[in-house]
């Protein structure tokens, strides 16, 4: 008995097969690019997603694919796929880094129960009805990315609370905010009915099964957003359990038994299990470091790491990583980044080291917002492909002042998705997540570092001083 998890990410699609004991026995992935037809746009043609799924599935062992009895989904959050009645996408998907709707946020005046960013479905759909009226006129469904993919495979047009509550069109509980949708002039019928993440959301069609090498008719769980799936797959279950994920962006997730009070710059969302989580979401982690690596001409990440951590940290060079605006804690879509304090004697390694520190400091700013609102965190689980190098892990622990426990699961969101598939098939129950938690090892213990603290203070001061420029 095998369970397949599909994680539809921003820059790649990942697959994982779990056995009946929750062990990962096969993985595969396929990468793709985010396109930008105009400045500030972030899109992906949805056919790219499906082609990546077929490609990745072909890399899984045929025997393990044939044993799959259920599928679960994890997906990048916030973006939207305007679709026809049969699920055909009417334009490329608009994604969470997109800033085209930043001038349209007046419909969400502060205070809001959750921060609203221009790359969320609400602002993007408001932009759509104004600028692409022909597409809006044909739209029957405004789908979250993972919901579009599930429908493409033969599933139902449904969504789950963890994804719905992050659209800026629903209450924190995940229920659609009919009054707001009406105020925005959006058709209520665009928004799919809600179902629990672990409920069955249709079965795999014969056509999709043939393309993927799977059995037709197997159940597909509704699924959840990638962050709640990563929390589930990483073993977060109890109130106060915390997780740091580092990928294209970065998230600090803290599980909550009850809904926490709203706080500026922080998100309060539903989890994949129906509980809650508080989150600081930082946009510029892997995306900023990848940009810097390219600008500085490093051919490999190994070279970039070696150069950066061989260089002495500079007391004068700071890097603001806000290349695509920022969410937590600043909620400033216009923020921009760069190096400040450069001198003629600074090296490429100095600049790369400052970039790593700048990203760590941006994560610290989000964590401090959580701490100010009642969560005294001194230990977190660590997941994500951008957190493997031990030198980077130590810098994160020192900058965040937390003990980091690395989850023995590089594909936490994909694993969480597969677990939802197993629950939908009746193999596991929603309360089994703690017993299925992957092993976590102590990755880094925070050290006192007065000079790092001084550079952190400089970083915050520089952001405050440059904030008015944007």
Automatic annotation (TrEMBL):
SUPFAM superfamilies: Actin-like ATPase domain (SSF53067). It holds the Pfam family FGGY_N. Keywords: Kinase, Transferase. The keyword Transferase applies. GO terms for biological process: carbohydrate metabolic process. GO terms for molecular function: kinase activity. The keyword Transferase applies. Signal peptide: none annotated. Gene3D superfamilies: 3.30.420.40. Belongs to the FGGY kinase family. This is Putative sugar kinase protein.
